Amino acid sequence: MKIYTPGVVKLFGEHAVVYGKPAIAAAVDKGVYVHCERDNQLSIETTCPSVRVRYRPLEGRYEVDRVNHFFAYIDSALRVARETWGPLSAKFVIHSDLPPSVGAATSAAVSVGLLKAYSRCLGVEVDGWQLAKLGHRVELEVQGVASPMDTTVAALGGVLKIWTNPFRVETLAVDLPQFYMAILPRRGTTGEIVREVKTRLAKRRSLSSTLDAIGAVVEEAHRCLIEGDFQCVGELMDVNNWLLGALGVVDRRVLDLLEVARPFIYGGKISGAGRGGVVVLLPRDGEALEKTLAAAGLLYYRVSTWRGGV
Q1: The one catalytic residue among 29, 39, 127, 150
Q2: Architecture of domain 2-172
């Protein structure tokens, strides 16, 4: 039995959503697969792209980038599942289309997917809303502070408009064309970057107007998405990206990428905490964009909206 959980990109509103503004996020058809098979012991196997292993032969040990953090989500998800549905002996095989820790919500996809696979292996049916809540509990245990946005989009799928305080969700009837996720090396964790933004906002009160502006962009983008006006959507992606730059989370690498891609896109922006990671590109000319990204030596994915949820 295999479970698929979509990755998530933030189209508009990240960071500002923490401070009461809405955000718009989409599930995509690249994500995490969890296979569960009953066994006489509990075991986990996992593979994902762009994970580097360093071996130190003189010390007799190896280091695997980001793996300890990744397995923290697995440990927490198994604990939550066991507390919710009871013990299970099974072999889980987890495969991700996407590299970890790039802003594509792979941790949320692993949490939600493992919970779903665990419940199905036990013969228990669980709806998307319960999985979203349990997945958010996993993220809170691991991160300490976490928005319910990623686990909700991963569990429910589609394009969602989300408010976190108080939490509510609106499903948007939007038909997005295929778009691109370019991946830049990440500098800093989500938690670190969110804390730095909080410090900057406390130090410079005038930056609160930036959050208001991002909220206004989200509302206008909502209308443009519904109307299928991708020229407008792309322009607003650029504006959202400029505003995120004022919060200190858009670096020169992102600006250089957008400048090179400019002739072939409606617009683009970071997705998630920033400082690298996913850059979303809405293409005018996909073939030319792919050649440009390949020539730059960048890892990229062409994706479509995933409406099925987990």
Answers
A1: 150
A2: 2-Layer Sandwich (3.30)
